[in-house]
Amino acid sequence: MEYVLRCNDLKCRHQLLDRAVVTTCSHVFCTRCADTTGLSRTSNSNRQCPACETQLMNPNDVVVQGLNPSEDYKTSVLSGLSPTVITEVASRGLAFYSYQASQEIIYQEHLAKSLTDKFGDLNQNMDQLIHDANSQIQLLQDRIQGTRTLPPITCGQGLTSQSSNAN
Fold first, then answer.
1. Where would I find the RING-type domain in this sequence (predicted)?
2. CATH homologous superfamily of domain 1-68?
3. Which of 95, 86, 90, 76 is nearest to 24 (CA)?
4. Domain segments of the chain as ranges
5. pLDDT score at 160
6. pLDDT tens figures, 4-24
7. Among residues 43, 65, 69, which one has the least CA distance to residue 56?
């Protein structure tokens, strides 16, 4: 299964499928968030990573990266470089993906804990509601039962005495 990058802006979290803005502090953003936060400005001064607030002053601290490079690009991008440089570049690339994967796990664990806490609160509220409803039902059943234990009034008793007085 291919790992899918997500925008590191916590309000966005969109999957990054075609292009992404990558920082030297190992964060990645969709182009929309990079534009909104000023990360993709051409001016290098005052650029700051929205995720960790690292100052990004050098021109290559922020790059727009195509996530689906052509076969020709893959063939030529590292051609001519020494095996040491190629290994270093590959190592940094793998470290980036490792960092992104670990950050995704931390984010998902945070979400799971948050949802578990909310579920616990809702479950507790539901239990209290059910308890209160059952108490109300019991109270109403007791009232109904209380009205059934009163001696029945016969309609004929009151009318008979009035009828006999009329004769």
1. 12-53
2. Zinc/RING finger domain, C3HC4 (zinc finger) (3.30.40.10)
3. 95
4. 1-68, 83-144
5. 46
6. 899 999 999 999 999 999 999
7. 43
